[in-house]
Amino acid sequence: MDKSETVDCLEKNMNGKKNFKRAWRDEDDKKSNKEQRKLLKQKYVGIVGKPKWAEITTDQSKKVLLDDEDEDLDLLKYSGNLARTKKGVNLAKGLIGIKKLHNLNLSTSSCGKIVKSVEFHPTSSLALIAGISGRASIVQVDGFKNDKLQSIKFQKFAIDCAHFTVDGKQFVAGSRTQRNFYCYDLMEGRSMFVPVHHNIGQTRMDNFCMSPDGKLIASCGKYGEIHLFTAKSKEWITTLKMNGAANSLTFTNDGKRMYSFGENGEIFEWDMNSRTCIKKFMDDGCLQGTSLALSGDNQYLAAGSSSGVVNLYKLPCDVNPKPDKTILNLLTTVSKLSFNKSSDILAMVSNQKNDAIKLLHVPSKTVFSNFPTTSDNVGKVNCIDFSPNGGYLGLSNNKSEALLYRLTHFKNY
């Protein structure tokens, strides 16, 4: 959508004053901002739905078959509200039903050679793709066309990390070369430049996460600092401090606890009400911690290290916990860990080696043996995400690709 490439930039200072200026200008674009936003909002709302676009419904009338001849692709093509997953047959270990579909960025290849972020929208069948070119795209996920709905260019801003807000109305983009970050409003078609005051010590925004309660943005800083911002106004609140550099953060599903992991191999547990560390322990056998993930049911904490080892801990942990399972299938630094929403699959990734991705069957603590295969050729994976009900798996890599897979055990999107 070329007309969406012209983006407004809202710059808000610490005194609350607002100054509007363009992030960049398309010389071919002669339409006014007001008219442009109106057209964008009409198209977005027409696809996503209004006013209850952010609610999950059980209305099965909105269920559309992607392919009548293939029951395994019986997903929700509708881009508005998603149906809830009904509890069905338990996922079996050994082999996983998985199909390669057309790439998520089939209709847009402008995110750069290295695609750093891919994430599914929390309530609609949309996905966010972003990369080092400074461009972020919103696509409609159907597994076939994956049409681009919107593309936003952030001038001189290589995107290293991007996440939807919990309500799905915005996304936040950060870069390792910039301390400031951007927030883009999907409904208004407007970007907000978020300045960060130099006094807080923030030097980059390439590693951050959103709290599931929709209140906080937590970002890894330098020297063990963890910077907290409000998810609503994007203003800095406070800075927490741990031993050694913080390399990974994750929240419990209610946002009341946060775990941090860093270069000294220690895992810190934080109470987010008091903003204090209530517990810390050494990851078993770890020299340098690189990645953390918490299962959606708060039952397991996965910790990945620079040696490629992933330890799976049963929660709650005591002072000196031993892993419930140690997974040794990766040989290089664990860069990403991600549980699916039903907490029965753990994806483990290293971005230092081609095809270094494994899917763990959590109930049996065994790795699925049929993914990836030699023909998958997934490259070096930078980011991984599961769709809200587990039907899709998305991967971004260093070959300009955002790969899409169908997990056939899960019948809904």
UniProtKB/TrEMBL annotation:
Location relative to the cell: Nucleus, Nucleolus
GO CC annotations on file: Pwp2p-containing subcomplex of 90S preribosome; small-subunit processome
InterPro entries the record matches: Utp18, WD40/YVTN_repeat-like_dom_sf, WD40_repeat_dom_sf, WD40_rpt
Single biological process term from Gene Ontology: rRNA processing
Domain of life, source organism: Eukaryota
Record keywords, A-Z: Nucleus, Repeat, rRNA processing, WD repeat
Family to which the UniProt record says this protein belongs: Belongs to the WD repeat UTP18 family.
Name this polypeptide is given: U3 small nucleolar RNA-associated protein 18-like protein
Protein's organism: Macrosiphum euphorbiae (potato aphid)
